[in-house]
C-alpha cells in the first residue's frame, strides 16, 4: 500500500492506494461521530457494500445506506435530495460521516450532499472506477448536473481520506478501465515524460488489470493532480492544465450526445487533436505526435472521432469553460510532457488539427 | 449612514446601514462580473425590485430576476432549483453576482444558491425585514428546509456587502417589525446592558418605525453578532450565545406548528423563560426579570405562550440542536446582559420557569 497526502493546510488528507485494503483499519481514524451513511449505486452496492458495512460496524458505528440508481442521468437535484432524505430519516446529525462508494457520479453527488447536509459534515471517498481514483478523488470538486449544463451546481468539499482499492477494478467493464487510462495518460502528457515512458513499458499489463501496476499509475496520477490542486485549489490558473484534451473532447461529447462516448474516450481523441495542433504549431515533433497516438491506441482508446461538421465542432468548443472573455484558451503541449495554457495559437491550424483526426 | 465591517480575514465585508441608501454608489465596488441576478419574492418585488434594477443597470450590468413565491414553506429544494434554472436560462457563468432582495427566507435561499452555482459565485444581501437585517445578514449561514427539519441543508456563504435600508421597513407589517425587535432585545440581554438601557429609552419610537433609531439598533445588533461570529465562524462555542431564548422558543414554535407564531415571537417568550430560570437559579434579580419582561412587552411581543403540556414542551426542547451528546445545554443569564452556555441548571427549576410563563 502507498500513501499520498494532498496538501491543503488544515484540510490535508491521505489517499491510500493498494489492493485488498483493510477498510476497518484504514477508516478508523477518519470516521467522525457514531453515524456513517454509505452512499452507493445499484451496480456497485451488490459487489462491495457489505464489505464496508461490516468494517464500519466492527468499529462500533451505526451504518445507514442510500442506494441510488446507476447512471450520469441521475446525477441531478432530485437524486441528491434522496441522500438528504436518507440522512434525515436515519436521524443523523451534524456529527456524522458520509462515505461515497462508487465511481465519479456517486463521489460527486455524495461529496456535494456532505458539503450541504447541516452545512457540512465529514466525507470519505472510496472511488471504485479508475477514473474516479485518478481524477475525482483529488481536488475537492463535487456537484450535480442541471438540464442546462453539467456540474453546474456544487461545492468544494475535501474528503477526510480516500481509499483507492485496485482489487475493486476487477469487476469494472474494460471500456470504463480504458476511459480511466485516458486521464492517466493525460498526466503523463501534460507534465511527466518519464511517466509516459513508464506507461509505454506497461500499457498492456495495465489494460489487463495488473493491480500492482495500476496502483503505481494511480499513485503517480494522483500525485500530479494533488500537486497542481494544492497550488491552485480554486482553479484560477495552473489547474486548467488538467483540461488537456478536454476542450476538444467536450465538443465530441456534446456533438455525439452525452452517453454515446465515455468522457475518457472523448478526452483521448481530444488529446490527439491537442497534440496534433501542438505539432502544427511547431512545438512537438512528428515522433512526439506518433507516441501520443500510440499510447492512446494501446490503452484501447479512440484516436479519431466520427465526422463532425467543423462549424458545430467549433461552436461546442467555445461553449467550454476555458473560454475567458470570449477568447478561446487551449491547453497545448509546448513540448512532449509539458503543457501550457495559451490563446496564442493559429486558428487555421486548429481547424486542420480537428479535421485531421476525424473518421 | 453607518458602516460596520464583519471581520473574517479575506472574506471581510461591510454592512451599510442607513435610510434611503443609494444602491448604485454602494453596490458598484462589490458587483463582480457583468451579470447580476436579483432574487426576490412576490411581496417584496413589487415594492423595491425596480429601484435595484435601475441602479444596477445604470452600472452597465446585465440584470436578470427570479421571483419566488412568498413564504417559509417555499424555502425548499424545489424552489432553490428555480434560482438555478433562472441563472442558467439567463446564461450566467461563474463570474456573476447574485443579490438577495427580501427577508431571511430570500436571503437564506439566495445565499445558498450563490454558494452552489458553479461551486460558488458572488453574493450580495439586501435584507428588507428587521429580522434579516439584524440576524441573517451577519454570519454567513444560508440554506433551505427539509420536510424532516428546518435549515437542514445549506452552506456557509459570506456576502460581498450588505445594504440595510431602514426606509424599506416602512412597508413591513408591524408584527414582523416586532419579531425583528425580539432579536434586537436578545443582543442586549446576552451581552450589553447599556444597549438594554438605550432600548428602554426608545422602544416606542422603534416600534413606530423611527428610521434613525432603527438604524442605530441595527448597527449595535450587527456589531454584536459580527463580533461573536468573527470569533467563532463555524459555531463551535461562543456563537451558541446567540441562541438565548431559542431552545424554549423552538419548543413553542414546534408545538404550535411553524407559521402560527413568528420566530421572533417565540424567541421573545423563550427569553422570558430563560430569564425566569436564571432568576430561579439566583443569578438575576426580580427586578432584572421584570425589566426583561417589560422591554419585550413594549416591543409588542408576547411574554407568555399558550398552555403546552410539559412533557411535550420538554420533548421539543431536547430536539433542539443545543443538545450535545444527549445533555441539554441552555443559554441563560449569569447576570442581566451577560449570558452563558451551561448544562449546570436545576431541571426542576427549568420546569417551573416554563410553567410560570404559560397562559
Ligand atoms: N469531481 C471531480 O473532480 C471529477 C473529475 C472527473 C470526473 N468527475 C465526474 O465523474 C463522473 C464519471 O465518473 P466515472 O467514470 O467513475 O463514472 P460512473 O460513476 O458512472 O461509473 C462508471 C460505471 O461503472 C460502474 N462501476 C463503478 N465501479 C465499479 C466497479 N468497481 N465494478 C463494476 N462497475 C463499477 C458504475 O456503476 C457505472 O455504471 C462524471 O459525472 C464526472 O463529471 C468528477
Ligand atoms: N441565516 C441566518 O443566520 C438566519 C438568521 C435568522 C433567521 N434566518 C431565517 O430567516 C427566515 C425568517 O426571516 P424573516 O423574518 O425576514 O422572514 P421572511 O423572509 O419570511 O419575511 C417576512 C415577511 O415579510 C415580507 N417582507 C419582507 N420585506 C418586506 C418589506 N420591506 N415590506 C413588506 N413586506 C416585507 C416577506 O415577504 C414575508 O412575507 C427564516 O427562514 C429563518 O430560518 C436565517
Ligand atoms: Zn476528464
Ligand atoms: Zn432567531
Please give the CATH class of the largest domain in chain A. Mainly Alpha
Average pLDDT confidence of chain A is: 95
What pair of chains forms the biggest interface?
A: A-B, 26 and 26 residues
Largest sheet data of chain A: 7 strands, mixed
Number of DSSP E strands of chain A = 13
Ligands: nicotinamide-adenine-dinucleotide, zinc ion
* Multimerization status: homodimer
Extract low-pLDDT stretches of chain A. Answer: none
Number of helices in the DSSP assignment of chain A: 13
Would you give an account of this structure?
Two copies of one chain form a homodimer. With 359 residues, chain A is an alpha/beta fold. Chain A folds into two domains: 2-170, Rossmann fold (3-Layer(aba) Sandwich), CATH 3.40.50; 174-356, Dehydroquinate synthase-like - alpha domain (Dehydroquinate synthase-like, alpha domain). Chain A is built from 13 helices and 13 strands. Chain A has helices at 23-27, 45-58, 77-89, 104-116, 130-136, 174-191, 193-207, 211-231, 246-256, 263-280, 286-298, 310-318, 347-356, and strands at 2-6, 13-18, 35-41, 62-68, 96-102, 122-127, 141-146, 149-156, 161-165, 323-324, 327-328, 330-335, 338-342. In chain A, the strands form four sheets. A seven-stranded mixed β-sheet of chain A has the order 1-2-9-6-5-3-4, sandwiched between helices. Chains A and B meet through α3, α4, β7 and β8 of A and α3, α4, β7 and β8 of B. One zinc ion binds next to α10 of chain A.
Amino acid at each position: 500500500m502507498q500513501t499520498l497526502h494532498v496538501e491543503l493546510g488544515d484540510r490535508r488528507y491521505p489517499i491510500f492506494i493498494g489492493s485488498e485494503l483493510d477498510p476497518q483499519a484504514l477508516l478508523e481514524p477518519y470516521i467522525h461521530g457514531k453515524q456513517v451513511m454509505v452512499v452507493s449505486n445499484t451496480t456497485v452496492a451488490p459487489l462491495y457494500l457489505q464489505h464496508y458495512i461490516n468494517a464500519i460496524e466492527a468499529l462500533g458505528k451505526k451504518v445507514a445506506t442510500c442506494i441510488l440508481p446507476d447512471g450520469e442521468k441521475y446525477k441531478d437535484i432530485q437524486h441528491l435530495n434522496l441522500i438528504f432524505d436518507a440522512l434525515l430519516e436515519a436521524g443523523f446529525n451534524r456529527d456524522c460521516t458520509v462515505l461515497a462508494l462508487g465511481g465519479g457520479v456517486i463521489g460527486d453527488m455524495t461529496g456535494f450532499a456532505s458539503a450541504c447536509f447541516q452545512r457540512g459534515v465529514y466525507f470519505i471517498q472510496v472511488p471504485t472506477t479508475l477514473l474516479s481514483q485518478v481524477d475525482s478523488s483529488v481536488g475537492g470538486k463535487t456537484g450535480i448536473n442541471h438540464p442546462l449544463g453539467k456540474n453546474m451546481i456544487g461545492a468544494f468539499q475535501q474528503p477526510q481520506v480516500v481509499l483507492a482499492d485496485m482489487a475493486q477494478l476487477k469487476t469494472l467493464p474494460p471500456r470504463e478501465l480504458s476511459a480511466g487510462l485516458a486521464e492517466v495518460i493525460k498526466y503523463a502528457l501534460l507534465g511527466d515524460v518519464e511517466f509516459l515512458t513508464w506507461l509505454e513499458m506497461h500499457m498492456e499489463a495495465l489494460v489487463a488489470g495488473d493491480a500492482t501496476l495500476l496502483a503505481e499509475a494511480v499513485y503517480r496520477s494522483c500525485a500530479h493532480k494533488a500537486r497542481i490542486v494544492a497550488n491552485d485549489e480554486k482553479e484560477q490558473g495552473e489547474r486548467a492544465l488538467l483540461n488537456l484534451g478536454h476542450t476538444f473532447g467536450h465538443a465530441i461529447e456534446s456533438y455525439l450526445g452525452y452517453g454515446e462516448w465515455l468522457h475518457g474516450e472523448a478526452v483521448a481523441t481530444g488529446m490527439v487533436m491537442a497534440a496534433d495542433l501542438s505539432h502544427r504549431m511547431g512545438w512537438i515533433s512528428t515522433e512526439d505526435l506518433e507516441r501520443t497516438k500510440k499510447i492512446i491506441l494501446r490503452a484501447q482508446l479512440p484516436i479519431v472521432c466520427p465526422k463532425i461538421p467543423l462549424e458545430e465542432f467549433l461552436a461546442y468548443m467555445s461553449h467550454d469553460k476555458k473560454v475567458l472573455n470570449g477568447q478561446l484558451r487551449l491547453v497545448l503541449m509546448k513540448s512532449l510532457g509539458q503543457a501550457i495554457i495559451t490563446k496564442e495559437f493559429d486558428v487555421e491550424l486548429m481547424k486542420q488539427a480537428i479535421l485531421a483526426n476525424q473518421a
